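Quick start: read one record
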Amino acid sequence: MARIGVVVFPGSNCEYDAFSAVTSLGAQAQFIWHSQTDLDGVDGVILPGGFAHGDYLRPGALARFSPVMEAVAAFASAGGAVLGICNGFQVLTEAGLLPGALQKNRGLTFLCQPTTVIVESTNSVLTRGATQGEELVIPINHFSGSYTCDDATLASLEANNQIVLRYKDNPNGSRADIAGVSNVDGNVVGLMPHPERAMSTLLGSADGRVLLEGFVHAPVGAR
């Protein structure tokens, strides 16, 4: 049984959603407070959504300095599976574990709605169980969710198959319709949509399951 650590920062508010989602898939979940300096031997790490440290300065800018992030960086460097969702994605970019940055949405509008994403690459711990070209309905809930990067970074993302999800109808102005990216090795992934909120058709969509199943059951070599 995989043990998944869910990092909790002051201001996180999606940690229980992530905890519930992975346990429903057969994993054992545990919370990891941001001041911890080790990950307690977990098999995978999720940085959940919310407003870490109140999003002061900019989303993720303070959370990157939390003591736990040194352990997360070491875990990722060793091949560990790391997933950042929404605010967690912002933290990973601020910490330099993923390329690019997240800026305010086009039109300066907070968005909370179902969104269709297209699986661009299955070369990651999040999308390994999906099919390239598959369309998934997953909700978004963000104000600073527009992905941006320079031309060289975009070319590198394209060349290395690091764009894992694209929006079908770009809701926030993200460059190249990017909804999620990975590092070169595919073991660190960030996305703005919330797969943990798309686990049941009773709540509108169960399309998040295929993504989180891939993450929870990532092979040992990808951890």
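The chain has one domain: 3-222.
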